[in-house]
Amino acid sequence: MNSFLIIALLGALFIGRISPAAKPVISLDDAHLCAKQLVETEVRYLPGVQSVLETWDRRLHYLRRDIIQRQENLAQLEFILSTKNFKNEPPEHLNHLLANAAQSCWDFKKEYEQHLKKLFLFAGSIVLFLATLLLYLALFGFSSPFPRREFYLFLLFFACPLHAANEITVYTYDSLAGKGGLGPLLIQEFKKKTGTDLKLVSYGSAGEAINQVILEGAGTKADAVLGVDSYSLGKVRSSALFAPLERGKLLLQVEHFLQGEDPLLVPFDYGFLAFLYDSKRNPSLAKIKTFKEFAARQITRKNLVMADPRTSSLGLGFLLWSQVLFQGSDLEGIWRGIAKQIMTLTPGWSGSYGLFVKEKADTVLSYSTSPAYHIEKEGKHEIQALAFEEGHLRQVEGLSLVKSSKKIDRVQLLSEILLSPEIQRQIPLLQYMYPAIRDVKLPESFRGLPIPKAVPADPKLVHEKRREWLQQWKKIFSETR
Amino acid sequence: VASAVEENFLGDPMRRGLDLPTFIVRVTFLFLILFLLLPLCWLVVRSFQEGGVSGSFFRDAEFLSALSFTYSQAFASALLSGIVGSLCAWVFVESGGVFGKILWRVNLICFSVPTLLVALGIIGLWGNYEIYGWTGVLLGHCLLNIPIYFKWVGLALNSRDLQHERAALTLGASRAQTFFKVVFPKIRPILWESFLVTFLLSSSSFALVLMLGGGSRFQTLETLIFEATKIDLNLQRAVTLGSIQLFISAFLYAVLLWKVKIPFSAITTGTRENCQSFYFRDRAAEKLSQAFVYGLYTVLCVLPLVSFVILSLPGLKQWERDWFLAIWESAKLALSVGVVSSFLALGACYAIRDNQSLFLKTFIQWMVGIPLSLSSIILSLGFLLTWASWARTDWQTALGIVVVQSILALPLVFPPVHDAFSRLAGEVTRAARSLGASPSQVFLLVEIPCIRGGLITAFLMGTAFSLGEVGAVLVFHSSDSPTLSLYLQRLLGQYRFDEAFAVGTVLLFLMALLFGIGSRWEKAQN
User: Fold this and answer.
1) Which helix (H) or strand (E) is A224 found in, with range?
2) CB proximity list for B491: less than 8 A, separation 6 or greater
């Protein structure tokens, strides 16, 4: 029985290899041929293959579901092919359907191969295990003090299956991917609408995620990076590893000030940088109306925490914000004033915000919408953002496609899902930022928040001047110990 | 026993051909050359390329400031920890006490705690004060270093022969004279070793400086490397900084080798014996010393961890499936690291025992010890860039993590295996050979059962190390299923502090459990 299955698997693999479906060519004949061959392959081999695989990996459940879905697609395709007679090129929507079918066949084949590899690995492990066992018994018999049971358990432990994947891989940052963030909802919606898994790989910040793509180069596993902020676009552009998505229709629905964003970015939310304080602990801070007053305030001890401009885009945003407001006037004085107040800089936003919430610091650099979190989750209205008359810097977050991705159509679908009203409605309560599309009803907690005046800033400036600003900032900061 | 050990270290002249031990030694050599020496050589060569080591680089104010802070804080940390840790060890050995015994056991936890948890514990306890900068870094390093002194110096003091001191006192020497003329020379090598090891560890510490250094006010070479690697993507600068750090560490390690013949040999030796102390004038002085020294140890090393555990209590209720997944992922990696690193330690011990060449022995010792002062980021970077084209899929990157962590764990897993080897009498091996056993049979049936205790301790140490290590995981990971330490980082990044602290406590508990089992096992073997 087992040898029959192995032969069947090898046959399936061989047919999969020679199948035209292996190349995702969008042609009517190819798609038809591919459909026929794969249906035949399934009919012949799948029952046997499944009966084996089912016994050792629950994840095959997804494969089976994909197969059923694909069969439905192919049935639909065959129905269209049998009822229509195209003289020339088929219409666009059919072309799209054929492309999906071909892509789906190709993915199926890849996954099929991966499962085969797993099966062979498993068989190899068993053979290795048996060979070791036989060798051991032949050499030493049963009387040796060697811990046999632990040794076998150990071998079995390493024989456990490896993870297979049929999905798109998106790099992002921790708070977006984690529980209570946008990530889980996006994964669910993406699966529902496309039938494909969305794999989010998270890093400390979006900047780190971009750097990871750059480090991995053209061979990166990422199909896209989610959460790219407007200040990192210079790096994204200069890496030449990213490509624009089709944004024509998408941009029609977003806020007009987001339509001019870089083509490499599909914006999905935005927010304003702001200093936050607890009005119960520090009521006097409510009197501060300008950035200048804030920088010049007298303090008895260092009490401001913020993300480090070296490691965080929020910190870098602070440098851009102050540059835009005070370039040519007293920028150094402003930085010196702020630096004197800083208790510590943390690698990312969450570290500094955690110190602020745990009452280790009195003020923190965050977003003007952050107080909504405390209203929603804790019913606290004391956390407030300082609104400066000079204006606040707007930070935009978006999705960027990795050029080397082989699943561009799915990343495109992801961008459409991201800007769909269902997801955008959830942005304020998941990301605590403003949604990118117009006419989204904001939750109650957002109503009382001041909407700051946006200062015009060129994110490209960050890329050009980043090193210079950081040097200046580090010098001033280390002088104010 | 000493002559047996001496004889044993001369090697087995009857061994011929490619037997199992020779195979293990060769694999170990190959492994270390491919995955440690090659990436390091690559880094050094690359650092001399354009934009690397040059006159202007050494005039860079930021580099000079980081260099001076790195080694000045390492010196201060090692010295301060040395004073407190040695005092603790002295009082514990001389007067003991119930509280002392508790601290001796707690010491095991402090010994194994990951730096990230140390930083969080210190912020939790003293975060309201302006500790960021020198104070924070010193506090953090003291927590990590004092237990090393406490354990090593304590073991050395404990295993000393009291007859000389009694003789000196009988002949009219004062207590101070006896201490400085008799006791101090005996423990001087272990003090040297502890100082250099803690100095090297503090000079390559990263997470602590990043979190407690107060941002760019205080930077070390390690944080500059991190900045160059992960933020600026300036790999040339990163490898240059890494090479400079490597040269300094190699020099200091050479000093350690010169001062101590086989490094780390005292880490796990020695047994506690109760004996009447003659160094305290009266009972009151003894109690006062205990209160002062144990109080200092508690404030510096125990309270931050206790505050961390207390902070984690609300989060422990939020136990969820992801924790199990993280533990499972960690367990897979950690067990693999345990196996690979103990295999390497075994190979290194065989190579040291069987090689006649002093150069090769020194070379192996250098290879085993140098990861102690090596940045995990730099090693991972070197590995990634040397073997980049190979590591593509999830299991390959997992293998990368295993390789790097196994190398980094070597200084920790080598001592127990080495100790076990030291206790293995050469006559047994020779007897087995003369009775007709093949080298492989001697290896499997005589040597392995004899050193099994040391191997299992090494395995547990390697496993515990891997559980807490995060640098290599951060460089390599590309999976949505993180390890426990990475999961902790992600929770911190997701602003889920309660859960992060709770995961930290689980991690702490697992590491302490493994170290505890390892230590008990070893004690039983001794």
Assistant:
1) strand A224-229
2) A178, B497, B499, B500, B503
Does the pLDDT value for residue B4 go beyond 50?
Answer: no
Is A397:A270 a contact under the CB 8 Å cutoff?
A: yes
Of A214, A354, A477, the CB nearest to B497: A354
> φ and ψ at A286, to 5 degrees?
-60, -25
Q: pTM value?
A: 0.71
CB atoms within 10 A of CB B303: 17
Report helix angle B394-423 to B376-386, nearest 10.
120
| pLDDT confidence band for B76 (50 / 70 / 90) | very high
Task: Report the C-alpha gap between A267 and A16 in whole angstroms.
Answer: 39
Contacting residues of B for A339, CB less than 8 Å apart: none
Show the DSSP H helices in B204-302 as ranges. Answer: 207-212, 221-226, 235-259, 283-297
Higher pLDDT, A153 or B51: B51
Q: Which residue has the higher pLDDT, A13 or A30?
A: A30
Q: Looking at residue B98, what is its pLDDT?
A: 81
Among candidates B159, B525, B96, which has minimal Cα distance to B290?
B96
Q: What is the ipTM of this complex?
A: 0.71
Residue A360, chain B, CB below 8 Å: the answer is: yes
Nearest CA in chain B to A199: B480
Tell whether A139 is within 8 A of chain B (Cβ). yes
- The answer for residues whose C-beta is within 8 angstroms of residue A34's C-beta and 6 or more apart is A19, A20, A21, A101, A102, A105
DSSP letters for B425-484 = -HHHHHHHHHTT--HHHHIIIIIHHHHHHHHHHHHHHHHHHHHH--HHHHHH---SS--H
Residue with tokens 């010098």: A475
Q: How many CB atoms lie within 10 A of CB A392?
A: 26
Beta bridge mates, A384: A277
Distance of alpha carbon A158 from alpha carbon A147, whole angstroms: 17
pLDDT digits (tens, 9 = 90+) for A340-388: 899 888 888 888 888 888 888 889 999 999 999 999 888 888 999 999 9
pLDDT exceeds 50 at position B280 = yes
